[in-house]
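Exercise 7. Given the encoded structure of a 284-residue chain, write a plausible sequence.
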């Protein structure tokens, strides 16, 4: 049994870590009211708000692989609830709750590493309307919640543009409607020209610029060509065996998370030691 993982000279029990990750993800979902049966119409109280932010920030100082395990557990178990709640939350009347939901979306591991986020974004029913809603919120000035900033919200919008079905948008070019895309193009351009923009961190600047470029490329190419070809390209990068030292094409899919893929049993067994920590059965 390979029950431990060694990180920087310290041994961690994988079973313990996985249990912790699931527990912490569940706590976050509870605090963010994702399990409430009755739709929340009030905003977060100052205390609840502080408690959630304290939890999120306390996690961020942990080693990367633990943070990743926690948010993978969250994505597998609660992403569909997060999206459903966000859709019924008003930026105007529940700004704290709204900003927190967007913040949680931006903290999740990127689609390339996160089969649950890919699955969610590709589900037309689950994600319907969300691209427009988050796009409009960005235009209306959704409050940034650290560690997210404008760059992180741009990353989220780009992930939606690439992975969500383009037929969700009014012109079929991308999941976000034309007028919202135009607004986003102007806003990301204006942000780059704002005084002091060069002083914000490099990641934020890069992502705002990249989002602006993507919005322009979507308009330049016919129909949904930009979206579909970019997605094909990214999917092509996921074709290889999940045992990174292998290099073969993958033919086998992990039956539990349906995300990790391998060339065969040997590589699956080899990768399981680490994959175990990120492997969850999605709840949606
Ligand atoms: Zn292999
Ligand atoms: Zn798996």
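Solution.
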């Amino acid at each position: 049994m390979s029950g431990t993982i060694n990180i920087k000279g310290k041994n961690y029990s994988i079973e313990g870590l996985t249990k912790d990750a699931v527990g912490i993800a569940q706590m976050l979902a509870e605090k963010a009211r994702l399990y409430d049966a009755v739709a929340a119409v009030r905003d977060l109280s100052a205390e609840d708000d502080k408690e959630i932010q304290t939890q999120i920030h306390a996690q961020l100082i942990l080693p990367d692989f633990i943070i990743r395990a926690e948010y993978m557990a969250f994505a597998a178990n609660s992403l569909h609830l997060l999206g459903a709640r966000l859709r019924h939350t008003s930026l105007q009347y529940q700004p704290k709750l709204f900003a927190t939901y967007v913040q949680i979306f931006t903290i999740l591991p990127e689609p390339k590493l996160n089969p649950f986020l890919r699955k969610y974004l590709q589900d037309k029913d689950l994600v319907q309307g969300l691209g427009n809603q988050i796009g409009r919120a960005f235009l209306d000035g959704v409050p940034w919640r650290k560690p997210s900033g404008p760059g992180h919200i741009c990353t989220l919008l780009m992930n939606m543009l690439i992975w969500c079905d383009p037929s969700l948008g009014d012109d079929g070019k991308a999941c976000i409607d034309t007028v919202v895309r135009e607004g986003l193009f102007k806003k990301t351009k204006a942000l780059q020209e704002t005084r002091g923009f060069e002083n914000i961190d490099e990641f934020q600047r890069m992502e705002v610029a990249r989002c602006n470029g993507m919005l322009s490329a979507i308009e330049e190419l016919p129909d949904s060509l930009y979206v579909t070809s970019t997605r094909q390209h990214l999917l092509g990068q996921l074709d290889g065996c999940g045992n990174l030292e292998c290099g073969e094409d993958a033919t086998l899919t992990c039956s539990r998370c349906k995300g990790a893929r391998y060339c065969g049993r040997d590589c699956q067994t080899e990768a399981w030691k680490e994959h175990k920590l990120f492997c969850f059965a999605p709840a949606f």
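Remark. Strands lie at 4-7, 10-13, 252-253, 261-262. Students should compare their own answers with the one above.
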